[in-house]
C-alpha cells in the first residue's frame, strides 16, 4: 500500500488507540504534533507504567478484547509482548537502523526514543548538608550519603546496563553497596527527580537524563545531573498490536512515530533522545563522543528479567 493509500485508509478509520509509557505531560503535545500532519485521525492515548502494559494487553486479548492499536514502552516490557505474540510484525518505511550491537526480531524494530540514566542531586541541599558532590554512582556508597539518595528498585533497564558494561559481579557488588547505604525507594525515575528538586532526599541514583536536563533549565539551583561514562541506556520501542481494530491508522501512527518528522517532534516536545542521525538531540543529554552508551539487552527473556529483578531487589534490601 502506498503512503497516500495508507493515509486515505487511516483517515477513513478516523481513530487510533495508543497505549504508551510517555509521561502524562508529554502525551498531549505528541498528539498535537501528529495531528498537524494528520488532522482527521483522533488519537486516544492511555498512559500506563511500563509494567502495566504487558498484563493489560495480554489479558484483553485472552478475553478477545482488542482495544489497542499501537503500543510504545520500555524494551523489556515490549519484549514480553513480542514473546507472547501479542504484537504483529510491521516495518515502517522510514525506520532507522538500530544502534550498533543491538538487535530485535524483524518487524519489531521501531524505536521511539532512548532513555539514559545519569545521576542527579540538589546542589543547594548538597552544599547545605556538606555532602560530597557526586562524581559518579560510587559517591552514593560513601558514608556521608547514607540515607540521602533514592533508587528505583524496579530499574531493570539500568541494572542490566550496568551488567553489560561492568560485568555481572562488579555490577552486583555496586548495587549491594548502594543497598547497604540505606537508599530511599521510589516508584519511578520521575518521582526521584521531583524529590531531588524538593531537596528530600538530596540525590538520586536512577533518573532519566531528558527529564533532568529540562528540570535543570527551569530550576538550576535545585537540580544538577551527571552523565556516567559509559552511560546506561535503553530503548523505548513502538509496535503495532495484533488484531489492531484500526489497522491502517495503527500503521500510519507507527510510521510517524519513527519517521524523521515524528522523531524531531518527540525531541522538540519532550526532550527525549532519538537514535536517528538526522535528528538534533539535546547535547547535554546525548553525545556518544563524550558518553558512549552502555546498552541493556532490549530482548531480555522473561526468565532473565525475573532473575535480574529478584537479584537486584535482594541486593538493595528492597521489598519484593
Please characterize this protein's 3D structure.
The protein is 41% helix and 17% strand. The chain is α/β, with parallel strands linked by helices and 320 residues long. Helix 10 (247-258) crosses helix 11. It is globular, with a radius of gyration of 20 Å. The protein folds into two domains: 3-113 and 235-287, Periplasmic binding protein-like II (D-Maltodextrin-Binding Protein, domain 2, 3-Layer(aba) Sandwich), CATH 3.40.190.10; 118-227 and 301-316, Periplasmic binding protein-like II (D-Maltodextrin-Binding Protein, domain 2). Strands 1, 2, 3, 4, 5, 11 and 12 form a seven-stranded mixed beta sheet that branches. The protein is built from twelve helices and twelve strands. The mean pLDDT is 96.
Low-confidence stretches: none
Total count of strands:
12
Give me the Rg, rounded.
20 Å
* Helix proportion: 40-55%
Structural class by sheet pairing and helices: alpha/beta
Count of discrete alpha- or pi-helical segments spanning 4 or more residues: 12
What is the overall shape? globular
Q: What's the number of domains? A: 2
CATH topology of the largest domain: D-Maltodextrin-Binding Protein, domain 2
Strand content: 15-25%
Mean pLDDT: 96
Q: Class of the largest domain, according to the CATH hierarchy?
A: Alpha Beta
| CATH H-level homologous superfamily name of the largest domain | Periplasmic binding protein-like II
Question: Which CATH architecture of the largest domain?
Answer: 3-Layer(aba) Sandwich
Determine the N-to-C terminus distance: 49 Å
Order of helices and strands: HEHEHEHEEEHEHHEHEHEEHHEH
- Can you summarize the main beta sheet? 7 strands, mixed
